[in-house]
Amino acid sequence: MRDVLDSMMSKEEKLPLVKVLATGGTIANTPSGRVHIGEVAESIPELKSVARLWGSEANRQRGVMKATTSILILFFIIIDWTFFVSPSSSLEKVRLGYSGVGSGEEIHLVAKEYGLFRKYGLDVEMIRIAGGSTIVQAIIAGELNLGRGSAAEVISAYLSGYPLKILSVLINKFVYSFVTPMEITKPADLKGKAVAISQFGDGSDFITRMTLKSWGLEPMKDVTILQVGNSPERLAAVSSGKVHGAILSLARAPRAKKLGLRVLADLSQIDAEYPQGVLYAPLSLIEKRPDLISNFLKAYVEAIRFFKTNKQAAFGIISRYGGITDKREIEDYYETLTKNFLQDNPMPTLVAIKTLLDQFSAKNPRVRDIKPEDLIETRFLSQLKERGFVK
């Protein structure tokens, strides 16, 4: 029905419901003549009974009876105020930048594809950008409203004087695998070799350096680090022999094994809280538009629940956006993600942020001045939990 009205009226010609009724039911003047509410109603099966209340053409010309007006007011209040407006006019435009695939990236895609953002009044445009540091730059430039990436980017932005706040953390532990060619049988074999990351300063860079140091290898001295791209590009770089190692997202590990590569280390076995799948926003937006943040998180939390309880829909999202086509790989990835990693309540924790800050401070002493509370905003998810929206 909205399409019918939109085709008949330009944006400027649309009238509020009150004005429609006050003008005797005329919706708009078009090149083909005046469009009457009765005419539109007759074309919509559900409204035929209401249209008949207008009576004959002569009655329409004499005006609208008070009784008819009352009925119409009640009718249109009940069905939807947006009957006379463009379907997206009441939705607020939001731009979200995200960098990777797998490891929970599916959640915002579910929220978009299955109308959960729209349910809470948001028209979310999602833009995939290679590298989390580029997302932060786009937020600073005002080109994006929110970012989806790693907590490392939030720390870097904070040190640069641009405060971002972590709103949610989908996964609160290490979720990567460190993959190498089969000839690399132990970490020491990486000495003198090159490994791949996405971009310097982003999450993949931080985790790769941390892993190498835990093995007694000095990044950029013992092991060269090359900027290659996200998990799909890093996997291709390892399998082609361009590099001898890389961390891969949960979704890519099965494919690496099929390509004959070695999973040198499963980083999820590290017993530590670590924030992954981080959603963040600038402090200025949080302060000015708490309603927008709250609505976004409502859709986000509902998308987690949807993803966990609608397996076939989730499989479709993984297949279309995750680059995994093998049904067994999709199911294995889904089961591992939903049972072992993906949190029902994506609340960021102080412990996880402290883990990150402790690692960063060894590289940059200025990080010691940052408190975990400086980087997270939990009030929105706390409020949703109080209302029973989050378990």
Task: Give me some keywords for this one.
globular, 391 residues, 3-stranded antiparallel β-sheet, 5-stranded mixed β-sheet, alpha/beta
Characterization of this structure:
The chain is of the alpha/beta class and 391 residues long. It has 19 helices and 12 strands. The strands form 4 sheets. Strands 4-3-5-12-6 form a 5-stranded mixed sheet, sandwiched between helices. Helix 11 (203-214) links the parallel strand 8 (194-197) and strand 9. The chain is globular, with a radius of gyration of 27 Å. It starts with a helix and ends in a 5-residue tail after the last helix. Residues 1-87 have low confidence and may be disordered.
Strand element count: 12
Indicate the mean pLDDT.
80
Q: Give the helix tally.
A: 19
What topology, given as strand order, has the largest sheet? 4-3-5-12-6
Kindly estimate the percentage of residues that lie in beta strands according to DSSP.
15-25%
Overall SS class: alpha/beta
The helix content, as a percent range, equals: 40-55%
Q: Which outline best applies?
A: globular
Distance between the termini: 38 Å
What's a concise summary of this model?
This protein is of the alpha/beta class and 391 residues long. It is built from 19 helices and twelve strands.
Q: How are the elements arranged and paired?
A:
Layout: H1 2-8, H2 17-22, E1 26-30, E2 33-36, H3 37-42, H4 48-52, H5 57-62, H6 66-79, E3 92-98, H7 106-113, H8 116-119, E4 122-128, H9 132-140, E5 146-149, H10 151-159, E6 164-171, E7 177-180, E8 194-197, H11 203-214, E9 224-227, H12 231-239, E10 246-248, H13 253-258, E11 262-266, E12 276-282, H14 283-288, H15 290-309, H16 311-322, H17 327-341, H18 350-361, H19 379-386
Parallel strand pairs: 3-4, 3-5, 8-9
Antiparallel strand pairs: 1-2, 5-12, 6-12, 7-10, 7-11
